[in-house]
Amino acid sequence: MLVACGRGSVGESSAPGHLAGRSLPAGWTEESRSTYDEKTIFEYIDGGAERYLRQGFRRLYAARYVDAARDELTVDLYDMGKPENAAAIFADTRVPKPRPVAGCDSAEAHDYGLQLRHGRIYGEVTVLRVDPALQVAAAAFARAVCAQ
After folding, report:
1. Backbone angles phi, psi at 32, to 5 degrees
2. Suppose 95 and one of 19, 25, 79, 110 were both cysteines; which one would form an S-S bond, judging by CB atoms 3.0 to 4.6 Å apart?
3. Positive or negative, the Cα torsion across 109, 110, 112, 118?
4. In the structure, what pLDDT confidence band is assigned to residue 124 with cuts at 50, 70 and 90?
5. Which pLDDT band, with edges at 50, 70 and 90, does 16 fall under?
6. Dist CA 91 CA 105 (whole Å)
7. Residue 93, Cα to own-chain centre: how many angstroms?
8. How far is the C-alpha of 135 from the C-alpha of 122, rounded, in Å?
9. Mean pLDDT for the chain overall
10. Spatial separation of the C-alpha atoms in residues 63 and 28, rounded to whole Å
11. Range of the domain at 83
12. How far apart are CA 78 and CA 123, in angstroms?
C-alpha cells in the first residue's frame, strides 16, 4: 500500500505516495522520508527539476531505507499527474546498460539501481554501490511500488 506522508498533504486519499511499512521488502526499514511539491522540489533536486515541472509534476515522495548490514537505498517516486507524463520522463531518462525488470509498466535496472514507470508514477531506486544483492533489493522495491 502506498500512503501519503511527509511535508504537506497530498489532497487525494488515493494518491500514490510513500511505501507503507508492510510493503517493504523483507529486511529493510525506512530511515527517512520527505514529500516535495512544485515549489519545494528544488530543495531536493539541485538542477534538473524543470524537466519534471514541464511534464506535469505534482509531488515527489523521497525515502531512504536501510537493511541490517546498514546498506542503503533511496526510492524517489514522482507523481507526474498522468501516465503519459510519467512515460515521457521515463523515455527521456537513459540508464547505462539497461536490463528489463518485470512487474511494472516499464522498468530498467542498471548497476546503481533502476528506473520505473507505473501509471502516473515515474520512480528511481538508487543504491550506493555495485552489488548483486542490492540490485535484487532494488527490483524488490520496484515490484512493491508497481504492485499498488
Report:
1. -160, 160
2. 110
3. negative
4. very high
5. low
6. 12
7. 14
8. 18
9. 87
10. 12
11. 2-146
12. 6
